Amino acid sequence: MKLFHPLTFAIALKYGLNSKAHKFAKFVAILSTVGIAIGVAALIVDTSIMQGLQNRLKKSVLSDTPHIVVETSQNSIPEILKLKNVVAAAPFVQAQTLMQSKNSLALINLQGLDDSNITYANGYERKDLKLISVPPKGSFELNAEAALYIRNDLKLNTGVKLISTLNARYTPMGLTPTQRIFTLKKYYSSANSTALDSAVGNYDDVRRFFRMPAQANSYRIWLTDPFVIDSVTPKLKAMGLNFTDWTSVQGEFFKAVAMEKLTMTIMLCLVIVVASFNIISALAMVVSSRLTEIAIFKTMGLSNLRILNIFLLMGIFVGVIGTVLGIILGIPLTYYVSDMMSNTGSFGTLPVSIELTNILIIGLGSVMMSLLCTLYPAVRAAATDPVTHLSRG
């Protein structure tokens, strides 16, 4: 037996479009359609802009933040590079150090990277990494965040003294920290959300400053996407390696962004839920006004399943029409909002990321919610007793 017979469609269309028996029910159904369209459009705008912002933050904030820093020897690198989502590895060292200049004293995060000794996984090469310019070996130069220059009133080609207590030595004068003059040669833009500014130097220069051995025992690992960190770290733990990842530095910031996105999504989903509940009211009124006709249909041989399908289709019509209108309205509205907010000059260029998967999830969710709200009046119509209502007529 076919689930939806042509007669079922015909009756559903008649009740939904051509019936004049209950105009108020049609008015409520129209409100439901408009409400679903508004909710879907708003949800597309919100999720697309929030996803765009998240992608921009991921690109800017995590561009200079090591995805993973693992303590190991060169012998373990080939095995690490075989892990899924791992792109490359390079000798790396980082620690906090005190930076002293003529006008300021600041605690910074000093990083050393050996960009001439990067090992790549199969299928990847240097262009797949977004590398910050690293000074040449022996230059004792630093490439620092632009914020470090601004906050400490520094200029390019300025010499600063770095002071570190890491591997400090005892002398007749007591515990003596390591000191070295580095030159701030270049700068790079960063949206770092941590309290400490960062500076990058050549691995060998920074290693010598921290008095570390020549043999590298710490490596920076690049991933295809920083957000796949949870698929890699369990495997590193299984290998018995000690490591740190970007979530220990930037994790709380991105959790706050994700929570904001989730909160806005839930609020806008409630708009769709409320609009869908109106379908119950509209169909309940239609069923109440059509009980005699339903009884007649049953005496003519229409099964309970067919009666159920008639009213399910009516609810689905409302949900599908509202969802399609919402998608048609939401996509151009997203770009309009982005352009409008960008032209104000306060937000810069507002990023947008409209993903097909996201739209499909919103659309299917909206239609399914409409279908769920249709079940009660549809089941009530299917359970109509023809004897009772025909005798009343």
From TrEMBL:
Q: What is its main location?
A: membrane
Domain (ABC3 transporter permease C-terminal): residue spans on this chain: 266-386
Subcellular location per UniProt equals: Cell membrane
Q: Does the keyword Metal-binding apply?
A: no
Task: Mark the transmembrane ranges.
Answer: 28-49, 265-287, 307-337, 358-379
According to the UniProt record, one GO cellular component term is: plasma membrane protein complex
Q: What is this protein called?
A: Lipoprotein-releasing system permease protein
Q: Where is the signal peptide?
A: none
**UniProt KW Transmembrane keyword:** yes
- What is this entry's stated membrane topology? Multi-pass membrane protein
InterPro entries, alphabetized: ABC3_permease_C, Lipoprotein-release_system, MacB_PCD
Q: Which family does it belong to?
A: Belongs to the ABC-4 integral membrane protein family. LolC/E subfamily.
Keywords (alphabetical) are: Cell membrane, Lipoprotein, Membrane, Transmembrane, Transmembrane helix
Domain (MacB-like periplasmic core) ranges: 30-114
